[in-house]
Design brief:
This protein is mostly helical. It folds into 2 domains: 20-99, Orthogonal Bundle (Cytochrome Bc1 Complex, Chain D, domain 2); 113-192, Cytochrome Bc1 Complex, Chain D, domain 2. 57% of the residues lie in helices and 0% in strands. The protein contains 11 helices and no strands.
Length: 195
């Protein structure tokens, strides 16, 4: 029976045809149509509350777009953009944004040395660099934090703390449990100032 099931699985995979690789050029064309107005032409958002996508891991973007498409993550504008988007189109968008050089938004606030140091100490104590990597570049399904919009980071961290945002697991909700607004402000400032 196992051999029959294995053969059926192989036959189904062969019938599906070869998988196509994600194409950043196709993703760039789609991004120009549907994403650039909010997330920036170069993937660096100039709008408060809208995240920069340049340099985000492709797996992270893919996951978020699927969560939007399936209505598992509620952001009305993104739910509308993602509605009906096929997986290959999502993967193309993810490849495009992952290939863009990351960097801070053009309107990044000046660095506050004391606030940044407080955020650095909190990040070290909370072990943020374990999952997001020591340079906060992110990996796989874990987002890049370095150079992200400060107000977006602060809002996202508050959402995790207040159980208004959940990912594919509840790890961030647990990490942020009980973190104060001033500590969130310090973390967001520190991470936003990283390049």
């Amino acid at each position: 029976m196992r051999r029959l099931l294995a053969a059926a699985a192989l036959a189904a995979a062969a019938a599906a045809g070869p998988a196509t690789a994600a194409d950043p050029a196709r993703g760039a064309a789609r991004a120009a149509e549907a994403c650039a107005a909010c997330h920036g032409v170069d993937g660096r958002s100039t709008q408060p509350g809208i995240p920069s996508l340049a340099g985000q891991p492709a797996e992270f973007i893919t996951l978020q777009m699927i969560l939007f498409r399936e209505g598992l993550r509620q952001v009305p504008a993104m739910n509308e953009v993602a509605r009906g988007l096929p997986d290959p189109a999502i993967e193309d968008l993810a490849a495009h944004y992952a290939a863009l050089p990351p960097g801070p938004p053009p309107d990044r606030a000046p660095r506050d040395a004391a606030l940044a140091e407080r955020g650095r100490a909190l990040s070290a104590r909370m072990n943020c660099g374990v999952c997001h990597l020591p340079d906060y570049a992110g990996r796989a399904q874990i987002p890049r934090l370095a150079g992200q919009r400060e107000e977006f980071l602060a809002a996202t961290l508050r959402e995790y703390r207040d159980n208004r945002r959940v990912g594919t697991d509840t790890q961030m909700n647990a990490v942020m449990y009980g973190v104060t607004d001033p500590d969130i402000a310090a973390l967001a400032h520190y991470l936003a100032q990283r390049d």
